[in-house]
Amino acid sequence: MSRLRIFDDTRPQAPVSVHTAFAEIARELANVGVRFEQWEASQPIAPGASQDKVIAAYRVDIDRLMTEEGYRAVDVISLTPEHPDRAALRQKFLSEHTHSEDEVRFFVAGAGQFTLHIGGKVYDVLCEQGDLIGVPDGTRHWFDMSEAPYFVAIRLFTNKEGWVAQYTGEDIAQRFPRMAPHSSVAAA
């Protein structure tokens, strides 16, 4: 189940509020300029489906966002607990950073935790299968996929070179909860 926990950025021990209903999560995130949507595939997706088949299943929503926001590239990333570089990949995303373009991810399967640092608050968003999150450019954030990652995600980019981070040098990400290994393993 998707979840949003909102913390005061000086108090990582206990959230100020917790939301699990889609409408509440979307509203809270919209209040700080973050897009949160849920999508459904237009056709069944078999486990291990190719990037082309995954993109085809969500083509209508992808095209809508590309038109609305000017995204120019789309791809699919897939990570499993057996991936040989999982620890290095996880470490790359765990420090607070920003981007000069929106970071848009749609979870076809599995889960990931986006944590946003906005206006004295920390918004900890557990995204699961069917969730799309759009983090605006310049937003301080970090991402955790757990020690045993499992997700398939569609990524949309303005910059065709893809993911480029500017690290803030702050240690805030180390003080807030990490993602626990995910128990539900949905097929993509």
UniProtKB/TrEMBL annotation:
The record marks D102 as: May play a role in transmitting local conformational changes. It holds the Pfam family ARD. It is an enzyme of class 1 (oxidoreductase). It comes from the Bacteria. Keywords: Amino-acid biosynthesis, Dioxygenase, Iron, Metal-binding, Methionine biosynthesis, Nickel, Oxidoreductase. Binds 1 Fe(2+) cation per monomer. Binds 1 nickel ion per monomer. It catalyses: 1,2-dihydroxy-5-(methylsulfanyl)pent-1-en-3-one + O2 = 4-methylsulfanyl-2-oxobutanoate + formate + 2 H(+); 1,2-dihydroxy-5-(methylsulfanyl)pent-1-en-3-one + O2 = 3-(methylsulfanyl)propanoate + CO + formate + 2 H(+). Pathway: Amino-acid biosynthesis; L-methionine biosynthesis via salvage pathway; L-methionine from S-methyl-5-thio-alpha-D-ribose 1-phosphate: step 5/6. The record marks R105 as: Important to generate the dianion. Catalyzes 2 different reactions between oxygene and the acireductone 1,2-dihydroxy-3-keto-5-methylthiopentene (DHK-MTPene) depending upon the metal bound in the active site. Fe-containing acireductone dioxygenase (Fe-ARD) produces formate and 2-keto-4-methylthiobutyrate (KMTB), the alpha-ketoacid precursor of methionine in the methionine recycle pathway. Ni-containing acireductone dioxygenase (Ni-ARD) produces methylthiopropionate, carbon monoxide and formate, and does not lie on the methionine recycle pathway. This is Acireductone dioxygenase. The lineage of its organism: Bacteria, Pseudomonadati, Pseudomonadota, Gammaproteobacteria, Lysobacterales.
